[in-house]
Structures are given as C-alpha cells and as structure tokens.
C-alpha cells in the first residue's frame, strides 16, 4: 500500500486519505447532476463549508510524520502553502456542501415528484454538457441549466411545456427525467 499511503502511516492518516479520495468522485459527479439545493443549504453553506474544510486542513497542520518536509520550510512559505491548501479545501468543501452531499441524500431518501415547467431558454453550452435547457423556477431557485441529450434539445423550443420528474427532500431537488408535453 506504499503507492497510496506513506510508509509507517497511522490509521488516522489512512482514514483521512480514504475520506479525501472518496469525496473527489462526488465532486466530479456534481458537475453533471441536475440538482438544486434548498434554502436550508444555501443560507448556511459558507459556515458549513468553512467547518468542513477544516476537516481537510487540520490533519495537515498537525501532521508529525518524519517525511513531512513542510514543517522544515520557513514560516512565510508554510503560511503560503497552508493558505493555498485551505483555499483548495474550501472550494472542495463548498461543492460537497452545496451540491454533492445534499444531492446524494436527496436521491437516497427523497420523495418522488412530478411537475410541469416552461422552457425559458435553450443553451448550447450548458454546465458541463453540450445541450441544456433553462426552465422556469420550479422551487428552490432551480433556474440553472439542465443537461439534456441532443435529440431532446432539438425537439423542444422556447416556451414549450415539459414534465420533470425526480426526487425532492428538505435539502433540494434532483431532476432525473425531463419529458416533452406540448408546444405553447
């Protein structure tokens, strides 16, 4: 296991890296998920992200492993390094707190819903996808691009009515499927 962990690493260090590497796929998944967080999440995401990012940074600050060369750096270089790490950890935590963890919880324990929505705009370059639709606000401020396939994107036009289905919970809404209903 020396490829993944340092030699003579403790169980706490191994657990830290498993959590860190385990959270990265969830961050990548959020770029393609049609999820909108609820007011509960959006009101307090800064505080949650700050606390969550400390879980990534504090183990690095208290690391006493002999191979840790950062402890030998001059004070200014250490501060710059740890500040840079904190910014990265905060960005990762923000993504997990706003979209990743609430999305996962909503898909697992959320209630199914169906709702009609109006297409406000068609976007050729959506968030991480080639074709996206921007729908009217369907709750939780969901007015961001929703990824769709090219065939569906060509079928629908502005102001058409679509049926959306997915899961909702106190953490937000996840759109699983969008179906064309009628022209307006």
Task: Record the SSE blueprint.
Layout: H1 11-30, E1 35-37, H2 39-61, H3 75-109, E2 111-123, E3 132-135, E4 145-147, H4 150-155, E5 161-169, E6 172-182
Helix pairs in contact: 1-3, 2-3
Explain the overall architecture:
The protein is of the alpha+beta class and 184 residues long. It has 2 domains: 11-109, no CATH class; 111-182, Beta Barrel (OB fold (Dihydrolipoamide Acetyltransferase, E2P)). The protein has 4 helices and 6 strands. It has helices at 11-30, 39-61, 75-109, 150-155, and strands at residues 35-37, 111-123, 132-135, 145-147, 161-169, 172-182. It has a 6-stranded antiparallel β-sheet. Helix 1 packs across helix 3 and helix 2 (39-61) crosses helix 3. The protein is elongated, with a radius of gyration of 21 Å. The termini are far apart. 23% of the residues are buried.
Instruction: Round the Cα radius of gyration to an integer and report it.
Output: 21 Å
Structural class: alpha+beta
* Order of helical and strand elements: HEHHEEEHEE
Number of domains: 2
Q: Total number of β-strand segments?
A: 6
What are the low-pLDDT stretches, counting only 5+ consecutive residues below 50?
Answer: none
Termini gap? 60 Å
Binned, the helix content reads 40-55%
Shape from CA axes? elongated
Which sequence of strands runs across the widest sheet?
1-6-5-2-3-4
Number of helices: 4
Characterize the main sheet.
6 strands, antiparallel
What share of the residues does DSSP label as strand, in percent?
Answer: 15-25%
């Amino acid at each position: 296991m020396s490829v993944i962990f340092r030699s003579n690493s403790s169980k706490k260090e191994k657990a830290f890296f498993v959590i860190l590497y385990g959270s990265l796929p969830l961050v990548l998944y959020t770029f393609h998920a049609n999820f909108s967080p609820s007011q509960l999440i959006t009101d307090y995401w800064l505080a949650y992200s700050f606390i969550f990012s400390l879980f990534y940074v504090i183990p690095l600050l208290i690391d006493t492993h002999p191979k840790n060369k950062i402890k030998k750096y001059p004070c200014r270089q250490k501060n710059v390094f740890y500040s840079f790490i904190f910014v990265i950890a905060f960005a990762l935590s923000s993504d997990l707190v706003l979209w990743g963890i609430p999305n996962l919880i909503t898909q697992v324990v959320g209630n199914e819903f169906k709702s009609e929505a109006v297409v406000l705009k068609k976007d050729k370059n959506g968030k991480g996808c080639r074709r996206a639709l921007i729908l009217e606000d369907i709750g939780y401020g969901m007015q961001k691009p929703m990824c769709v396939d090219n065939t569906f994107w060509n079928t629908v036009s502005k102001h058409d009515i679509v049926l959306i289905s997915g899961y909702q919970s106190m953490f937000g809404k996840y759109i699983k499927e969008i179906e064309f209903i009628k022209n307006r």
